[in-house]
Amino acid sequence: MPTFTVADLAHRVGADVLGDPDRPLSGVASLEVAGPEDLSFFAREALRAAVHGTRAGAVLTPRSFDASGVPFSVLRVDDPQLSFARIVGLFHPEPEPPPGIHPSARVDEGARIGANVSLGPAVVVEDGARIGRGTWLGPGTLVGRGARIGVDCRLGHAVSILHRVEIGDRVRVHAGARIGTDGFGYVEGPEGAHKVPQVGGCVIGDDVEIGANCTIDRGALDDTWIGERTKLDNLVHVGHNVRIGSDCLVAAHVGIAGSSEIGAGTQFGGQAGVAGHLTIGAGARIAGQTGVIQDVAPGAELGGTPARPRRSWLKEAAHLGRLPNLFRRVARLERRVKARESERPTRREAADASDDGTA
Q: By residue range, what is the domain housing residue 70?
């Protein structure tokens, strides 16, 4: 593992250094387990006790951090977590397979392969496919006929890039993802559901990351789109003709039904679902397990099923926890009312008492 000095790392992230700038660091770790040769970071007040008890050699901190009396070197930055993320890769560089085509790979004559491409064992590149320079394809990956992959892409094990798929530059696709599969399109007929041929394509923008076992359907007629820099977690499903804008974050198990349009910068929590043919405005925040069944305004924050404003959903969730006590209180009140009603004379009894002169 490489070694860097505190000053080396500070230069890379624009940090101000307090303490020894020449201290060598050879790893990264959390505050709790870091040792004297590790770099860690402190970003939340909840970790205040941990940062003062850490054995780390250096810590990335907010610029407001009071470093008086701490035994470690301090690297003050605007965003410690972001700076830490940028530094981790220096200590753990991704292994680079050597350029070349494995003997067990099959490349059709009509395919075009760029310079410094690495094709792993059992890779299949079909006729008319194009693979840009510096791209890696992991073992068992398929690139279908006419598909196009840009430069410096990283495709993991057993990825399927089917026909009429276009992938931009610097895209990362993790193991088992399927891009360009048929959309779920059927028309009811006298003999049951009749399949609608899915003849559109799928376009993936630059710098997109697609998690393991994601499925992205091709369009029925037009293309499915994933915008630049959007990140999909594992096991996300994107239906046919969906258009996802740039810089979106989509957590695991999210499902987006066909022909919905997602604005730029939208974020989805895990297991959220979006019905078909909807428009979600740019910058919306959709909480985990939310069911979206109507259009969403830009910048909205929603939760629950059906989706509603996040604050209303949280209040409802809090009230639900109070329902058992409320039911018990209502039952007690009902019993008291019934007891009083049983003690009160009826109108007939009151009239009879009046006739007897006893009222």
A: 4-91
pLDDT tens digits, residue range 25-65? 999 999 999 999 999 998 877 677 788 889 999 999 999 88
Together in a domain, 37 and 179: no
Which tens digits make up the pLDDT trace of 316-325?
888 888 888 8
Is 194 known to be catalytic?
A: no
Task: Name every residue whose Cβ is closer than 8 Å to that of residue 96 and which is 6 or more positions away in sequence.
Answer: 136
- Spatial CB neighbours of 220, under 8 Å, sequence gap ≥ 6: 183, 185, 196, 198, 199, 200, 240, 241, 258
Angle between helix 80-91 and helix 6-13 axes, rounded to 10 deg: 120
Contact (CB, 8 A) for 167 and 207: no
* 8 Å CB contact between 194 and 212: no
- The answer for residues whose C-beta is within 8 angstroms of residue 51's C-beta and 6 or more apart is 31, 42, 59, 61, 70
Residue 338 tokens, joined: 């019934």
337: which 2 tokens?
């009312």
313: left (phi over 0), alpha (psi -120 to 50) or beta: alpha
The catalytic position among 163, 240, 253, 319 is 240
Given 91, 114, 134, which residue is the final one in a domain? 91
| Span 247-271, average pLDDT | 98
